[in-house]
Amino acid sequence: MDHALKGGKPENVRTDCLILPIGPERELGATAKKLDAISDGRITRALERGDLGRSLGRTLLLAEPAGLRTPRLLLVQSGKLPLDAAGFRKLVRSAVAAVVTTGATDATLCLDDVDVKDHDPSWCAAEAVMQASEETYRFHDYLSEPGEALQVNLHRFNLHQSAAGRAGIDRAIKDAVAIAGGVATARTLGNLPGNVCHPTYLAAEARKLGQGSKQLSVRILDEKQMKSLGMGAFLSVTAGTEQPAKLIVMEYRGGAQKAKPLVLVGKGITFDTGGISIKAGPGMDEMKFDMCGAASVFGTMQAVLAMELPLNVVALVAAAENMPSGSASRPGDIVRTMSGQTVEILNTDAEGRMVLCDTLTYAERYKPEAVVDIATLTGACVIALGNHASALYANDDELAAGLLGAGERSGDRAWRMPLWEDYQQQLRSNFADMANVGGREAGSVTAACFLSRYTRNYRWAHLDVAGSAWNTGTKKGATGRPVRLLVEWLRSHVG
Ligand code: BES
Ligand code: MN
Ligand code: ZN
Question: Is 80 a catalytic residue?
Fold first, then answer.
């Protein structure tokens, strides 16, 4: 989708659909008043009939308004002004959803009468672009005949602002396009089925991302290389599958030569059957989403590249498939990790932490400024926080605060959970340095505790995105979270 910022008189805007926010109690903003007068009271008459509704996001489509250069005028209820950020997001989403039901190929959102608390017009423009992109995202690669609901005529979504003062808005829109592109990539990688999106596919995606970029170099470690690094935990997960595992390394150099890199680590289990500790049948298809942490790392790197952030960022993707077979790991097996610590595999379904622990040890070689791993790690996380927040764990308060702030600002929120020593004892094993599971209680916490034993040498945070990375039920599909949080966090290191 294309985007541009338009200026000038609102009545002169040429567009397939003009989106006009309207406040409650029928009080019109300056621009709405003007358009109402030009169209002989078309807007006030509709409002007097009560056709718009008073709750935020209600819409009303007026066809062929007189005096305007648009065949469609879409009124959207803004509710009481000023809006908060969440309210503005909702307004844009509702308006775009309404436009998409029409034949309009381009739409223009008029920002004149909008007031969002603590946010300027460039924020509004950027946010509108990102929300429009998310609202019009579709995934129908495998449908022979995509139904009407999957088709989107809208190809251009513009912003209009009558007054001058456009400084910075164009740049904000450009960055928003980059972030929206990253979110869409994360969603698509997540939505692709496990028979297509396997570790080798992800490796090829990484190579594609690096192609033609001087700043991004890509390396793929195969199982042989992992073996010589001593990654016994990582390899225990891939033992049962025909799909070769990959440790994907993407190094982005946009910052100063000797600036320490920020490292992102993604769990990329392209399908998680549970292995010998096999999962129940119903809903197992959703375990194709078990690489959404990796997908968010890809999306974030794509955005970083497009925005040319002046930072050094390293992405490590632990890509493997967890399958049962004659060669699969058994419960009770003991493996040695790259760190030297041994692990008793009490449950082969706790595979995410097994691929991550060795990848986190690998991250030490970068002498990182900080490391953040992103993983659909535990079902317990979904029970704790649902799909509203990602669970955040960190061994450093400043790092935690930075990530929580980025989540708040982007609307892609996280909530901090404890990493207290008290939980560590749940990981005791009779036969190895630790077990890979800590029992039923506090499952998301003990998974994080496991990882914490491999991240003692640097500042580290862990995002359990099991609840936030995809939707279940009728809206089943990847959300692209936490790309927005991660990009916002990376941006906060610029300057
Ligand atoms: N990928 C799953 C976590 C998961 C399960 C995410 C359901 C979203 C929905 C992970 O590999 C897993 O299976 N975790 C186990 C850990 C347990 C064996 C300690 C879990 O959560 O049941
Ligand atoms: Mn599992
Ligand atoms: Zn898993």
Answer: no
Give span(s): CATH 3.40.220.10, the chain.
5-160
CATH superfamily of 5-160: Leucine Aminopeptidase, subunit E, domain 1 (3.40.220.10)
User: Which of 22-36, 70-84, 253-267, 309-323 has the weakest average pLDDT?
Assistant: 22-36
Q: What's the gap in Å between 206 CA and the centre of ligand 2?
A: 24
* CATH fold group of domain 180-491: Aminopeptidase (3.40.630)
Task: State the burial class of residue 149 (Cβ atoms within 10 Å of its Cβ: 0-12, 13-18, 19+).
Answer: exposed
Residue nearest to atom 22 of ligand 1 (CA): 379
CA–CA dist 17, 67 (Å, integer): 14
* pLDDT on residue 167: 76
Strands lying side by side in the sheet with 342-344? 334-336, 342-344, 434-435
Does any ligand 1 atom lie closer than 6 A to the CB of residue 226?
no
Distance (Å) from CA 251 to ligand 1 centroid: 29
**Helix (H, G, I), strand (E, B), or coil: what is residue 256?**
coil
pLDDT of the residue at 25: 77
Q: What is the pLDDT of residues 407-465, one digit of tens each?
A: 999 999 999 999 999 999 999 999 999 999 999 999 999 999 999 999 999 999 999 99
By CB atoms closer than 10 A (0-12, 13-18, 19+), residue 387 is middle
Cα 156 to ligand 1 centroid, rounded to whole Å: 40
Task: Give the ligand with the smallest distance to the CA of 385.
Answer: 1
- 378 close to ligand 1 (CB < 6 Angstrom): yes
Q: Which ligand is nearest to the CA of 446?
A: 1
- How many distinct helices (H) and strands (E) make up the chain? 15, 19
Tell how far the Cα of 466 is from the centroid of ligand 2, in angstroms.
11
Instruction: Read off the pTM.
Output: 0.98
Q: Residue 331: CB within 6 Å of ligand 1? A: no
The model's pLDDT over 265-290, given as tens digits with 9 standing for 90+, comes to 999 999 999 999 999 999 999 999 99
